[in-house]
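Task: sequence in, structure out. Protein: Glycosyltransferase.
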Amino acid sequence: MTNYPDNSKLKVAILGAKGYPYVYGGYDTMIKELGERLQKRGVEVTVYCHRALFKERPPYVNGIKLVYTPAIEKKSLTQLTHSFVSMLHACFSDADVILVVNSGNGPFGIISRIFRKPTAINVDGLEWLRPKWKGLGSKYFFWASKMATRFYDQVINDSDEMQRIYLELFNAKSKVIAYGANPALNSDSSKIKNWNLEKESYYLIVGRLVPDNNADLIIEGYVKSNSQRKLVIVGDVPYKDNYADKLKNIADDRLLFTGYVTDPEELKALYHNCYGYFHGHEYGGTNPAMLKAMAYGCAILALDTAFNQEMLQNGKHGWYFEKNEKSVAEIVAKAEDSPEAMKTFRDTARSGLTQKYNWDHVTDQYLEVLKQLAKKK
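Result:
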């Protein structure tokens, strides 16, 4: 039991993602890992869930209180309206402190400020630069991120580079708390037989098929290479999309699109047995897919960005390619010609998961922030 100034139990409300237990993306995973650990430490945790995603709606799961709030079910409005309703509910609740995820929820900090509820926000990546948010969407996310720095008591970033960007763009200080990882030494190799794959017979991409993850760049570059291995693409988009359809229609027998892989043991086996893992994510901070690749012992080939340099410790745990097809083809050739170097990357990948990526350490840091905010009440 964690004690607070009045010796009562700390009550924390968490909102802004899909809910719990709903492990679909990075924020959902963070809420699961963080919420469960906070609950075990004696914190009373409430998680706000997107009602339409939950057919069954138990009031508690694993000791975590669940509140199911509605949303306007339209692509561009779902997340924001769900967060708006959740924030109002949380402000009327007995929560001591509110933790919000997603910079898109930046403007809603004015609600918690009016109600004098101490609130922190994890702002994630550079949403306004993502190709999917063109025009008005891009302007909104930039403005929302700026509002997050104005209205919330504490802004949290998950990388040193993102902290630097927020200071430079918005003149706003933030606290760095990285995303965590769960290292695993073993997996069930029979799981990859579902796709007629064998150990180290393929390269891997994991992520949504959206432009900012650069799957098109990697695939087109790979097609130009002479590798005999397959390129396995795990992920999709949950809607009809020309970009994703175009990728799936590229004619090359080496390409294997699995769609979503929802079984965590299957996903672990795909990571654990690949020859190399391609990481093309461009605008995030600490990326969950990259952390999984490190945790599962992958040789990593990453797009050369400041975020990826930070995570791979400037080349200690992987090689980088530039944002063009020629560079991708060249790094494939380099990987094919360097089996010993690739093995070394696989053998040492987990050592890159320093203390800052440990979920218990991450929880310690969040708990300290939440306790400090609760004192302001």
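The CA atoms of residues 355 and 361 lie 7 Å apart.
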